Predict the 3D structure of the following.
Amino acid sequence: MAVDILLEWQTSGTYADALLAAADQRHIFANPSDRGLLHALVLGVLRHKTMLDIWLGELNQRGRLTDPVRWILRLGLFQLLKMGMAPHAAVDESVNLSYDEKPLVNAILRRAIEEKDHLLAIEEDAPLHERHSLPDFLIERWRWIFGEEGMLKIVELMGQPAETFVRLNQLKPWTEIPVGLSPVESLPGFFRAATVPRAELEAGTCYVQDPSTWFSCALLAPQPGQTVLDACAAPGGKAAVLAQFMENQGTLVATDTSSRRLKRLSENLTRLGVTNVECRNVDWTAEDVLDDGVRFDRILLDVPCSNTGVMRRRVDVRWRVTPDVVAEMAGVQWSILNATIPRLAPGGRLVYSTCSLEPAENDAQVERVLAAFPHLRLVEKKLVAPHETGFDGAFAALFEAAL
């Protein structure tokens, strides 16, 4: 299954987490640990792909490999050199997948076992971006933003699996904390999840959600009875928090561009007990987006971005992000800002947020807004730095409109 998913990831351009979610829906795992192993294999190989390929280049004397064999060998090397799996298990399973290439796969992986110390020394001496399978330009950008020590901490963090957090849903609260959850000291209502409480998730009493998502909603702080817009709402985690602030009173308009994502948004909000929401299909980047005259007391713009702050969860972002992508996303964000700011009522508040660490998507956009919309003032802004909090990276800026 891991090989199939990685091959599909290579050819389809689909995000790995989406492919894994689809696999979870298609298959019933007899042992829950099998599901965990599948996720660990796929995401681990993508997290370390550059180093795995360097090792493979050192071990492969034959030259060109087919794509399936290359992924099988990456998986085998990851199990041997990163997971610490029993060598016979890693080699035997890899060889069994290899059809006509069994002798080659067997020889390369057995050589990896024999030369383990040499391969780990190669990793130790490799440049930082190769050792951590990260774009070099991002490392340099983090060095400039966070300093040498901060950059090294972020680089190390982005090479590790993300923690799982759940948020207590106060619209449908539980009577007692499920087993396997421990409170996040700095943020009441959020819990670290050693095991995911699936029954509570199905019941809507909690929601899997990183604590970094809280800050933009808390800055906006919508009140009961207000008219609120969540302009980029799917899959609904922040919209549910806004409804919680509003105590399900007033009107929450949640929009997105994709009918598929809107369906998921509506299902999530229904399960979470949100009753004051209207889900609408709106593309705020379209030139002809209709102004129906409605003005909002509060607007949340959790805009599409480069996702550099959530690379622990969206592991394959490292294989997609480039300086051009950052510039492109900044253009999309500016279109959304231009379309939604005129919908803000006098005296209203707007929060612009991203899950990016890139200044071009964060502080530069704040300065651009202040220059283009003089009736807005910046009230507060916050960068959630992952190496300081242990949460995902996020940015939020609160603006207030003149009366």
Notes: The chain has a mean pLDDT of 95. The first strand starts at residue 165 and ends at 168.
